[in-house]
Amino acid sequence: MFKDVSSCNTYNYGDALYWDARYVEEGGSFDWYQRYSSLRPFVRNYIPTSSRVLMVGCGNAVMSEDMVADGYEDIMNVDISSVAIDMMKRKYEHIPQLKYMQMDVRDMSVFPDESFEGVIDKGTLDSLMCGNDAPISAAQMLGEVSRLLKPGGIYLLITYGDPTVRMPHLIRPVYNWKVNLYIIPRPGFQRPEGCSSSIKSYLEPIPITEKGLLPAEFVLEDPDCHFIYVCKKDDMELSSATTYGLTVDLLQ
Ligand SMILES: C[S@@+](CC[C@H](N)C(=O)[O-])C[C@H]1O[C@@H](n2cnc3c(N)ncnc32)[C@H](O)[C@@H]1O
């Protein structure tokens, strides 16, 4: 599902009406791709719990609730589906750290510039990439994300899109983002027997080429893996930008 362009043609992921109908039909909650427990090392390492966080295209995922349970104090959740937003508002009215607003991520003008220290996107850019005028929608959304991030802020993108299809959108000079890439297997993926790499390796950034691509010799352990792009809005010269190290203790 959502793996390639053919699934875009089957489902109208870029269409608000599709999402409204889906949320009416399914109700409940569902997290696309990964749960917070798997993403926690990345979220906690790059986005302090005191940050003002924007969750773009929150849907009916439990991720934001889990983040609050983990200490996050202020998460603004937006989604184009009024059905999802109404449901989530009701569900979380007793949790003041969570706020919900119906909004198109291509126009978030209700928020002033530099409003957030962190923006999290799990599957929403992917949805836009399935819609009409995908490159324009992506540029509108990412332009808004860039505008809304404080200097030094982080855009954390969790996606099925590999660097050949995502990097061209992320490395536009106007954003001045320094991008680190991680690759994690889909939930339930079993490593082939005899495979020696340890869990720690998922926490190490992939060394990308100057063009932002995977090294030629790189082999994907899980062909259905998820890519995590950590984009840091940098005020400084790119050459002096910081790189980060992740530690296994954040997996706890
Ligand atoms: C694949 S789902 C991901 C939901 C959630 N982030 C998760 O991880 O489970 C994509 C979400 O993006 C929302 N969406 C699609 N286009 C949007 C847009 N232009 N503006 C805001 N939200 C949008 C959909 O309504 C849907 O909830």
Automatic annotation (TrEMBL):
Keywords linked to the UniProt accession: Methyltransferase, Transferase
UniProt xrefs under CDD domains: AdoMet_MTases (cd02440)
BP GO terms, sorted: methylation
MF terms (GO), sorted A to Z: S-adenosylmethionine-dependent methyltransferase activity
Domain Methyltransferase type, first and last residues per copy: 54-156
InterPro entries (UniProt xref): Lys/N-term_MeTrsfase_sf (IPR051419), Methyltransf_11 (IPR013216), SAM-dependent_MTases_sf (IPR029063)
Top-level taxon of origin: Eukaryota
One Pfam family matching this protein: Methyltransf_11
Family: Belongs to the methyltransferase superfamily.
Protein name per the record: Methyltransferase type 11 domain-containing protein
